[in-house]
Every structure is written in structure tokens, then in C-alpha cells.
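#lab-general

N.A. 3:47 PM
ok so I finally got the sequence cleaned up, no stray characters, all 66 residues accounted for. can someone with queue access submit it? mine expired

B.Y. 3:52 PM
send it over

N.A. 3:53 PM
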Amino acid sequence: MVLYPLSAHRAMARAATEVYRSIVRTGHQQDVVPLMQTRAELYDMIEYHRFEDYLDNMFTKEESKK
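B.Y. 4:20 PM
back already:
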């Protein structure tokens, strides 16, 4: 990652360009949905539910202190 810091960014920029071209051409995103990461895949990658649990626990602890 240190040697190629912008490689993923450039790949994402190209993918975004293709998605937007498709939307402009067709008026919808249906044709590019198979190329997209699902919400579940995103949440798994960023450990969203673990963070959500952390926040829930943090606020539960604060509420119990009152």
C-alpha cells in the first residue's frame, strides 16, 4: 500500500466514470448494479455492525450512569 497509494483511488475514479456514463446513457443504474459492491459487502469490509454495537454499548452505559 505504501508503494502504490493512489492505485485504488484511480481504479475507483475509472469505475465511477463508467457508472456515470452508463447512467447518462440509459437514465438508470440497473446495467451497472452487478459491478457494484453490495451494501452487505461494504458493511462487512468496514465492520459497520461492530461499530454500531460499540456505539449502542457506549450510549447504554451513559444512560445507566444517570
